[in-house]
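> example.struct
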């Protein structure tokens, strides 16, 4: 094929499919060649829509200066220079520089992490290239590519249809209309509006039924959806609830700090202390007390959490999702493949006059007995022809039930290729989650055969006869068969019913499913995953309810629920509800509502019912996570607070909609994500409590010393030095912790719970006062007992405050945990931070210019002994209050 550049096809809907292929220099059976692909990526770029231009490094750096904390620090520096206190002014500028640098590098790292995760979660498409079928990331598609679409795919480009099989799409993303659109291949008039171009598929739309082959005509921002999305590229993203909480807390703390600073300045001045000195001290206190690292730590903690989870096969698509996971208290999940192995095997066959358990098609005697039954032959034909799976030595994909039926037929010696060739499909009624059945019309010689399979209650409504001894007889024992279905389901088997009819003429679509002959049942075994039971127990300990929502039979669902510990063996029937027994949500009585809220298993539910149940849970103050994999789960995934899709079994539509993707399809992976979400929020809380209690100690120490006319325990530059040592490194280390050891043994937090609760404020005050006691204690001891000069008293208090604040990190774990073994002592970053802080302090002492600026004089070892004593004393006092007073 010629590989020269091409032009985009104008109005491809108005051309025949053959002309579109010619125009794009492609090949329907071979696809594009390697050389063509490279040239077209150069010509058209990747198939991506730039939602917003990524921030440049200069913009990220500039943004660090655009916040109220930096404004206050800048004002403080200007005041210092105004009073000709050059050392303090320079020190504040250093604080600004360090704050901006940390913010810059952490935001840059967070953005890079998010970009990495975004690439990991990109959609994939089946494409024909060099005569071979590939699955590749949709961003690499180019005009002229031949793509294969199947039910559940999200269309990744605009494309002209070449061939279709019962194809319908949902184009709400483009047109706003939720109705299913049937697709054809015939060309249309040039002036046909987009909403009526039924020979095209468009980026962002969803394949709801059937399959198709199409040729890509537009990619990226030249697609119809791309043109619309480009209009909104300059719209700023809405800030997340967590960011709002952090900003609100930050502003509140700024005003509180300024108020306390003004009080201290006035108090010191009234007591006769030099006004300029008190003003400098007040400025330094204001600088030190403002939690400039708060938003930085929150962002990096969330981003690091996402990276950790990605290494464990959990892809988080949105930063806020990590935080929301920590508050999730209900998880709704499907059964098949999530709670079970999704390795379906045919186990039982039931006909009108025979039944077979633990059937083995490789056993010749058993197989001969089966093949003597006309019903078995009919069932096998239905199993092979009414089947959408692909089963070849190199490619096996499709619904697990369809794959199990195909494998069983092949093991029984049937020639699948020959049977499909001799019985070409003429019509299909695709499986529908509401209808719970599918059917095909296949022509064999001059006779048309209708084959149907699906849920027993759906199939039986279409049957008026039953196959017995090779003949159709009146189907008068439906109740008896219903009991057979219940019996199979109660043993954990998934049950499928089969039916058939013949016609001399091609049946009309409207009458296709009427007057069928019932063939029999197939029971499939799909064992529960071995690791799920322990995870369910963990969720119960964590206060998280797991709710099963399945289209399967109530008996099957109940049996699996009991095996995994979701239901007790003697659970009351109210815990299991069938879809037909779920009342209308519009006029729910209190009794009906409580019954739904207390149920654990919902069987035979429709997508609409899943949606309604999630809404009901949310209306009753629950944070709901929804695990789904199919097209029918998409509405529920959107509605849930956290949508979770399967990475292997999940359709493209489910993965595109979800906030979280489980790449390994393991139900147990959700536990890791919830634990990480909880840990991150608790880390942020610890960070805030640590900063506030440390800063509070500085403010109160200076205030009380001024009130009692004691030598000042802290000088302005010393306060700024403290801010660099104890505010940055230990605080950041707290934000990188793994979380409490028993974090999954507690109920989830309430969604509207603030970062700082009453109990945390109480703990902050106690921690701050205990540190203050240590600082003022050594100040008073040095002044009244040792009778040291003011500069040495100041040094004693200064080093005691450094030591006490570093030890303050060990006050952060909850009081019920061991002091020696908890999330702080086991966090290596804490020990690195303390070591670094001690090193910087020692360097300051032994570097004359820095020591002089900080007013540090010669210090003997015995004086350091007092520093250690009072520093540990503050820690001991705090621990006494924690253990006796049950402080956090």
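> example.seq
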């Amino acid at each position: 094929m010629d590989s020269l550049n091409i032009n985009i096809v104008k109005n491809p809907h108005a051309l025949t499919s053959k002309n579109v292929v010619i125009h794009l220099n492609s090949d329907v059976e071979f696809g594009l060649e390697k050389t063509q692909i490279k040239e077209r990526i150069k010509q058209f770029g990747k198939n991506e829509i730039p939602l917003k231009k990524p921030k440049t490094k200069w913009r990220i750096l500039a943004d660090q200066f655009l916040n109220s904390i930096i404004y206050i620090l800048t004002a403080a520096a200007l005041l210092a220079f105004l009073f000709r206190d050059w050392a303090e002014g320079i020190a504040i500028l250093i604080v600004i520089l360090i704050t901006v640098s940390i913010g810059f590098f952490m935001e840059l790292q967070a953005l890079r992490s998010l970009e990495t995760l975004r690439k990991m979660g990109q959609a994939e498409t089946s494409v024909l290239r060099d005569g071979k079928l590939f699955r590749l990331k949709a961003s690499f598609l180019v005009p002229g590519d031949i793509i294969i679409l199947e039910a559940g795919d999200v269309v990744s480009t605009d494309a002209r249809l070449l061939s279709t099989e019962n194809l319908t799409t949902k184009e709400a993303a483009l047109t706003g209309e939720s109705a299913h659109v049937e697709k054809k291949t015939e060309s249309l008039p040039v002036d046909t509006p987009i909403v009526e171009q039924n020979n095209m598929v468009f980026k962002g739309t969803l394949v709801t039924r059937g399959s198709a082959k199409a040729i890509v005509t537009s990619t990226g921002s030249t697609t119809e959806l791309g043109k619309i999305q480009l209009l909104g590229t300059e719209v700023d993203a809405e800030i997340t609830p967590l960011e709002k909480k952090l900003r609100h807390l930050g502003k509140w703390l700024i005003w509180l700090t300024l108020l306390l600073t003004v009080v201290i300045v006035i108090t010191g001045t009234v007591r006769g202390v030099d006004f300029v000195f008190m003003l400098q001290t007040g400025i330094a206190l204001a600088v030190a007390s403002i939690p400039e690292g708060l938003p930085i730590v929150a962002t990096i903690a969330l981003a690091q959490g996402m990276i950790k989870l990605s290494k464990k096969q959990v892809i988080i698509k949105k930063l806020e999702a990590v935080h929301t996971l920590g508050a999730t208290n209900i998880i709704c999940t499907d059964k098949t493949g999530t709670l079970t192995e999704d390795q379906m095997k045919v186990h039982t066959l039931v006909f009108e006059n025979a039944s077979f358990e633990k059937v083995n098609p490789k056993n010749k005697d058993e197989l001969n007995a089966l093949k003597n039954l006309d019903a078995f032959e009919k069932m096998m034909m239905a199993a092979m022809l009414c089947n959408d799976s692909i089963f070849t030595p190199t490619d096996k994909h499709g619904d697990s039930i369809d794959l199990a039926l195909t494998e069983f037929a092949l093991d029984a010696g049937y020639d699948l290729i020959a049977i499909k060739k001799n019985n070409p499909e003429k019509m299909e009624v695709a499986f529908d989650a509401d209808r719970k059945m599918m059917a095909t019309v296949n022509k064999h010689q001059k006779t048309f055969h209708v084959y149907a399979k699906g849920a027993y209650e759906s199939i039986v409504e279409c049957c008026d006869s039953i196959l017995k001894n090779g003949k159709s007889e009146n189907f008068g024992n439906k109740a008896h068969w219903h009991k057979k279905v219940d019996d199979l389901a109660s043993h954990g088997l998934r049950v499928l019913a089969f039916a058939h009819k013949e016609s001399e003429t091609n049946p009309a679509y409207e009458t296709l499913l009427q007057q069928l002959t019932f063939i029999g049942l197939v029971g499939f075994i799909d064992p529960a995953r071995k690791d799920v039971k322990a995870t369910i127990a963990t969720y119960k300990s964590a206060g998280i309810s797991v709710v099963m929502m399945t289209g399967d039979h109530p008996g099957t669902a109940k049996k699996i629920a009991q095996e995994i510990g979701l239901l007790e063996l003697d659970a009351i029937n109210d815990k299991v509800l069938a879809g037909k027994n779920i009342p209308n949500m519009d006029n729910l009585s209190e009794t009906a509502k409580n019954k739904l809220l207390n149920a654990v298993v919902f069987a035979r539910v429709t997508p609409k019912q899943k949606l309604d149940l999630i809404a009901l849970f949310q209306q009753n103050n629950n944070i709901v996570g929804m695990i789904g994999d199919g097209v029918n789960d998409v509405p529920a995934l959107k509605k849930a607070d956290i949508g979770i899709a399967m990475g292997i079994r999940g359709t493209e539509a489910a993965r595109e909609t979800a906030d979280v993707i489980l790449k390994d399809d393991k139900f147990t992976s959700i536990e890791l994500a919830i634990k990480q979400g909880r840990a991150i929020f608790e880390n942020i809380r610890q960070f805030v409590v640590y900063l506030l209690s440390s800063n509070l100690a500085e403010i109160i120490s200076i205030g009380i010393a001024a009130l009692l006319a004691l030598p000042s325990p802290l000088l302005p530059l010393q306060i700024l030095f403290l801010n660099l040592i104890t505010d940055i490194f230990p605080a950041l280390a707290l934000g990188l912790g793994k979380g409490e050891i028993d974090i999954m043994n507690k109920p989830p937090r309430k969604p509207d719970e603030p970062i700082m609760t009453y109990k945390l404020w109480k703990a902050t005050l106690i921690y701050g006062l205990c540190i203050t006691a240590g600082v003022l204690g050594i100040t008073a001891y040095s002044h009244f007992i040792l009778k040291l000069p003011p500069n040495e008293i100041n040094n004693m208090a200064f080093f005691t405050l450094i030591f006490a604040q570093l030890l303050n990190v060990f006050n952060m774990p909850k009081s019920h945990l061991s002091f020696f073994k908890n999330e702080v002592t086991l966090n290596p970053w804490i020990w690195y931070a303390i070591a670094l802080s001690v090193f910087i302090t020692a360097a300051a002492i032994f570097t004359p210019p820095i020591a002089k600026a900080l007013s540090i004089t010669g210090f003997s070892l015995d004086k350091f002994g007092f520093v250690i004593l009072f520093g540990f004393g503050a820690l001991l006092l705090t621990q006494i209050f924690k253990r006796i007073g049950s402080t956090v």
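> remarks
The mean pLDDT is 83.
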